[in-house]
Amino acid sequence: MKKAEFIALGISEELAAKAEKASQEELKGYVEKSKHDEIAEENKTLKTQVTDRDKQLETLKVSVGDNEELKKQIETMKQQNADQEKAHKEELAQIRLDNAIDAALISAGAKNGKAVKALIDVSKVKLGEDGKLTGWDDQLKAVQKSDAYLFNAKQQNNFRGFQPGASGEVRPDANVDMSKMTYEELAAYMESNPDAQ
Description:
Elements: H1 3-8, H2 13-26, H3 33-65, H4 67-107, H5 113-119, E1 126-127, E2 133-134, H6 137-146, H7 183-192
Antiparallel strand pairs: 1-2
């Protein structure tokens, strides 16, 4: 305590001075409460940090111990990803082949694509980089010959009169100089114009 505090308690000034000295001697080596609390809190924080560091070290020790297991898991995952990518590419290639076959069946005039596809050995058909089918034409021609009923008959354009998109110079009913036509042209003209003279 300070001298003024002792005087406030009713102690004489001389006695208050002695008491102040004695109090200061007694308090040597002691820390103020605020400083004590501050140091205690810092000590607590440091202990917590040391405990956390110890846990982290233990975790690292465990991780280093399982490093080989971790590498094995990574390699397994890489292999699984490669297998999935390969399967995906094969699936895409099959879809492209099926779409090309379906388009070829439509352009060939197939009435029922599934029925025609069942008659063709699709395992021998390959899709090239250029998008063309190989091993397809011969099989399709064979099916068209053996099972022609599965395909639409090609219709010829036999109507007479104005033809949209045709030039206006040659009309179906106009006099055509047949003497300047080749035999094939004449045969085609007579077939498409049976009433021609």
